[in-house]
Design goal:
Strand content: over 45%
Radius of gyration: 17 Å
Order of helices and strands: HEEEEEEEEE
Low-confidence stretches: none
Number of strands: 9
């Protein structure tokens, strides 16, 4: 577990350290997401770090809504560190399209409480993200939609949508 966490942090720091003189955090966003394997809706928050015109790094954290199963509650969360390759940017129309790839770290926790006995267990898994997304500028920010597949023990299609707000400028 510590090795996986350390690996994710090293990759994340490496991505964010690339071309720091030209790069900057440019957007922060919030949205909803849906995981096909766990069949749950969740909320997410992200930050966009612009490296250059074609590449950016996006870190997002997602928390799926808990599921009650009798005396057991299941909760899931995920942390993603993705690189985006912007292959279409039309400033006139405010439309941006990008491919994404990166790392996913997912944790599931089950908590049992029947009034007499209590207990909990958790499991974490690392996977690779592959997908694509679009952004559409609407004045106050950018509406976005993403479709990504997590390849690994936590295989699932993740669909996300929300709004990203510009920072600083």
């Amino acid at each position: 577990m510590k090795k996986i966490t350390t690996l994710v942090l090293i990759v994340l720091c490496s991505v964010l350290a690339v071309k720091t003189a030209q790069a900057q955090f440019v957007k922060a966003g919030v949205g909803l997401m849906y995981g096909s394997e766990i069949e749950r809706l969740g909320i997410r928050a992200d930050g966009v770090y612009q490296i250059n015109e074609e590449f950016r790094a996006v870190v997002d954290f997602g928390l799926f809504f808990p599921e009650e199963m009798g005396n057991t509650t299941l909760t899931w969360w995920e942390l993603n560190a993705n690189a985006n390759y912007v292959f279409h940017a039309d400033e006139e129309q405010g439309l941006t399209a990008y491919a994404l790839g990166g790392l996913n770290y997912t944790t599931i926790k089950s908590k049992f409480d029947d009034g007499t006995n209590t207990g909990s267990a958790s499991n974490s898994e690392v996977g690779l993200n592959l997908g694509a997304g679009v952004e559409y500028g609407v004045g106050f920010g950018d509406l976005f939609g993403e479709l990504k597949f997590v390849i690994g023990d936590a295989d699932q299609l993740n669909i996300g949508a929300g709004v990203r707000f510009p920072l600083g400028n």
